[in-house]
Amino acid sequence: MKNFDLSVYLVLDPDLCREIGMVETARLAVEGGATIVQLRDKHADTAQIIETGRALKAALAGARVPLIVNDDVEAAIAIGAAGLHVGQSDMVAAIARERIGRDMILGLSVETEELAQRIDTSVVDYVGIGPVFATLTKPDHKQPIGFDGLARIVAAAPVPAVAIGGVKAEHAGPALAAGARGIAVVSAICGQPDPKAAARRIAEEIERARA
């Protein structure tokens, strides 16, 4: 049984995290309540991602917070990460599952109801749905879907969903009302002067939305 909590899903960005680094940002965010950490670095090669991923894994040891690697299956396996996340233009989910085995968490990005309906629950464990809003951290993103679009795609998905794309602490309530299990954030934690406090605020908003 895979155990993961999508509530406060931190997606690391090397540029935004430059001041204190991705490893320290992640460590502080987990102290504040981040429940998953994703390593995403589109400019790094596999060797660099492995190096950063191993440092992250060491920093988060004992925290019981899964480390997910974005897109790079070789790095995810080498790091011994808890999971892999792929987009629609990355490796096909079924092939990714074959590569990583049955035990690793596999997440998939979806932008439409049709894509959500096609998900094989024996392959994919959760979906990232968005972009809810336009975001500068992923300039090539699809058209924003808003909370109405989020609700439609969540309803079509047979696995748990996390909302992504320009979402911040104040969007936790509407995202959960739309059916998401949590929110995936980048700039709401990365680059903030106090990542621990930023993560705590999101966690508190999630708790408030569930109350």
UniProtKB/TrEMBL annotation:
EC number, UniProt record: 2.5.1.3
Catalysis: reaction(s): 2-[(2R,5Z)-2-carboxy-4-methylthiazol-5(2H)-ylidene]ethyl phosphate + 4-amino-2-methyl-5-(diphosphooxymethyl)pyrimidine + 2 H(+) = thiamine phosphate + CO2 + diphosphate; 2-(2-carboxy-4-methylthiazol-5-yl)ethyl phosphate + 4-amino-2-methyl-5-(diphosphooxymethyl)pyrimidine + 2 H(+) = thiamine phosphate + CO2 + diphosphate; 4-methyl-5-(2-phosphooxyethyl)-thiazole + 4-amino-2-methyl-5-(diphosphooxymethyl)pyrimidine + H(+) = thiamine phosphate + diphosphate
Residues annotated for 2-[(2R,5Z)-2-carboxy-4-methylthiazol-5(2H)-ylidene]ethyl phosphate binding in this entry: T135, L136, T137, G166, V186, S187
Signal peptide: none
Pfam families: TMP-TENI (PF02581)
Cofactor(s) the protein requires to work: Mg(2+)
Positions of 4-amino-2-methyl-5-(diphosphooxymethyl)pyrimidine binding: Q38, L39, R40, D41, K42, N70, S109, K138
SUPFAM superfamilies: Thiamin phosphate synthase
Annotated Mg(2+) binding sites: D71, D90
CDD domains xref list: TMP_TenI
Cofactor details (free text): Binds 1 Mg(2+) ion per subunit.
Pathway in which this enzyme or protein is active: Cofactor biosynthesis; thiamine diphosphate biosynthesis; thiamine phosphate from 4-amino-2-methyl-5-diphosphomethylpyrimidine and 4-methyl-5-(2-phosphoethyl)-thiazole: step 1/1
Keyword field: Magnesium, Metal-binding, Plasmid, Thiamine biosynthesis, Transferase
Residue ranges constituting the Thiamine phosphate synthase/TenI domain according to the UniProt record: 8-189
GO molecular-function terms, A-Z: thiamine-phosphate diphosphorylase activity
Keyword presence, Iron: no
Record-stated family: Belongs to the thiamine-phosphate synthase family.
Function: Condenses 4-methyl-5-(beta-hydroxyethyl)thiazole monophosphate (THZ-P) and 2-methyl-4-amino-5-hydroxymethyl pyrimidine pyrophosphate (HMP-PP) to form thiamine monophosphate (TMP).
Protein name: Thiamine-phosphate synthase
Taxonomic source organism: Neorhizobium petrolearium
